[in-house]
Please model this.
Amino acid sequence: MQGAIARLCVVVAAAILNHPLLFPHENTTLPDQDEELIARMQEHEARLEMEKAKLEKELSQMDSKQEETTLQEGYSWYFWSTVSFIIFFTIEMCRVDLADGEVRQVEEEEVFSESGSINPRMMVLDKDILSNFCDKCTYTSAHENWRVREFVEGFADDLLESLRSVCNRDTDMEVGDFVGIGSMFESWKVCKPLTCDLIVPFSPPDPHSFQYRLWCSSSSDIPPDMQGCGKIKVTTPGENGGGCLCGSANLGEDMLCLLHGRNDTPKVSLSPDELLCSRDTNCLAKDQVMKWFQISVTKAWGRISHKYDFDVTFRSLDAAGALKIRFPSGKIIVMNIVPVVQLEDTDAYFVSHFPSDVDSFPDPYWPLSVAVYERNLLKHFTKRLPKHSCHLHCLQIVTFLHKKQSGLTGKSALTNYHLKTALLHLLLSKKTIMWSVESMQHRVQDLLSFVQRSLQEKRLNHVMIGNSKVPEEIQVPEMIRRAEPINLFRTLVLQRELYAATVRHFQEMLRNAPVLIQEYTPYLSNGGLHHSLDESL
Model:
């Protein structure tokens, strides 16, 4: 750059010194008539001007390049400073996360070490004892459970028919037919008392209808801690631009409805309280529904009680339809009749409450149940597994151990539904040939290992929601299949004390498993002692 400036200075100086105007006209050394000399001077001047312009152009280009280089160097400095800061910040955050992860891992390892962690695959389970145990369970399920289901279905039909008769069709909810779900209707019930779970769909009276908003909807306002739930909105005629308005507005004597004749009595819209909604909202309230259902069931039983020779009582005032049937012989059957709302035309239902659920959801959030699809999935596998497969036997054994351990150490966050979910995950991941009755010992160990690993990770995904492995034959709704998986162990992540108690419960169950199975199995070899085993189950 300095060389270019020097060249420019030399050219400018030469141009000034050689400019013809510097010589005065009266100079006698320059003849006025020498045209040839003047022409050469002008030509030399033109060349100098061209050289000057060329040098100025080069100088301006060099200056612009230098400015760009300076700006680029400045931007580069800012860029690399920012990148360095981000890298430094990321490293520090990773160190904190790793430290927290190490602390959590150490804490979880301490929980398992304090409870005496046992590897389920190292458990000694005698094949003959397991086989005899399951034979007795199968015998009980095939005979007594069948008779109990037949009785419960007949009694439920009679009770619901009586309930419909005591309800006002114009103002009360319309009750549909029940659907049997749970262990009794899935043929793996093993422990007493014999419990039958029934869900009963209901719908609002005409001309009202339900609208649903799921947690997985695109425009959902469901909080993150209410995953798996939805809201149910009770709509009135004409609220969304549909339906006939003749029942909700005074059209006058001169106006005629083209849908309804003069003799048709229009149905007037009900208030939110009459439609069992939460206060100051049009969202269906679970508390209001359960109160209405319990009162209706009480009236219905009062109308038909004279036909039966047994007593019916409510087991819990907080759970509508939780009935206990006591026969004169002392035998007890438990019925859980749960009012639900059907999700459109699917087999998924919004449930007012779960009979054995640990978690509770406040109004107006309704948990969604896909128990019917789970029952269909078990039927799907039963048709495709080897004859006399062991999958239900494995679930019966583990639920038996869980029931007995709960009697020893009390209840925990682990439920039979968690155990069934673990079994369904294994059925979806293992080959069908691996579920033969000869492999029952290994499959029981697999099931216990799966539950133990889920407890260690504090994660057990719902088997239907967000699971692409479920066969298309089950016809799970697409909105549920594509949803994000739901962690059934989420409460264990949030509550450390509950998690520690659940881990201790499970480890004690593993430790006592061989003793518990062997303790109740000797009765099987003596036909005269079968009744004792029945009472213990």
Observations:
- Residues 526 and 532 are 11 Å apart (CA to CA).
- The two ends are 100 Å apart (CA to CA).
- Confidence is low (pLDDT under 50) at residues 21-33, 96-109, 524-536.
- The first strand starts at residue 174 and ends at 175.
